[in-house]
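Incident log, structure service

09:12 report received: a user says their structure output differs between two submissions of the same chain.
09:20 pulled the input from the user's history:
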Amino acid sequence: MSEFPIHFYDDRHFAELKPYQFSMSEHATACSIGPFLREHYVLLYILKGSGTIKLSGVRYPFESGNVCVVFPQVVSLLESDGELMYLSLELDGKDVGRLLARAGVDTRHPVLSLAVPPEESALRTEFFALTEHREKGDLYQIAHVYLVMDALISESSRQAQTQVGNLQRYYVDKAIRFISKRYTEDISVEDIAQHCGLNRSYLGKLFREEIGVTTQEFLIQYRMRIACLYLKNTDVSIGTIAASVGYANQLHFSRAFRKVYGMSPRDWQKQHLQSLHAFSEPAPQEPAQVPQTAAQQPARRQESSTQSQD
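09:34 re-ran on a clean worker, output below:
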């Protein structure tokens, strides 16, 4: 049985980020905003429109979907050709400059295009999470500022181009993030490959080289690991657990589980509960969110156990 790779946190990438303000601005006609002298970094996500941003006397063109970065102590002037809408985030921290550099942004390259379309952009999602939920507390806001910076780096077109040696890992990580967010839904290897913009066979090749299993095997193993957590920590039915990890058909789930662990879900549960009782360990608490029943889950395509192993 293949095991998931262990990820060790690299604290060299840790940064202290402090948000100051965030907002959404909209202008119905051509406009000129500024000049302003900023004390902190400002990120502008352009939702609609085009124009130029003038920084220290140099003009840089921008269009919808771009991110413009204004650096501290730099005079900025934003001018649009027509209707303009953008999200803004003002922040600071000792490592913000280094994080921006990882995305390929510096004072000579302050306008960034993203490697993903707007409808798939996590950066856009995190910006909206800030501006549309102002009632949330400070921990929520700080968390999403970190997610903004993470998405800025991972979706940067320049970051993907300048780190060609890591491009293979980039696509595998992108696929894994997609799986971790969507494993409860009816996703297939084809869906994962399409999200990454790759051929399914090529993505399977990258998974085998980076992790040692195919995309399909990783998806199944990921779902089975989550299923094991439910089996150990809850007393919900096998059908409910199957639905919570993306299987509308309990039989298909049981077959996949047996293929990975060599026994049925119920036998696995009994074995591990007996081990817990033998060592007199306290019973683990149920997770905060118990999975929905199979009846509550949306209909999903059946995932065949004979599906291609790409």
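09:41 both user submissions now match this output. Likely a transient worker issue. Closing.
09:42 reviewer note: The first helix runs from residue 96 to 102. Confidence is low (pLDDT under 50) at residues 6-12, 160-165, 276-309.
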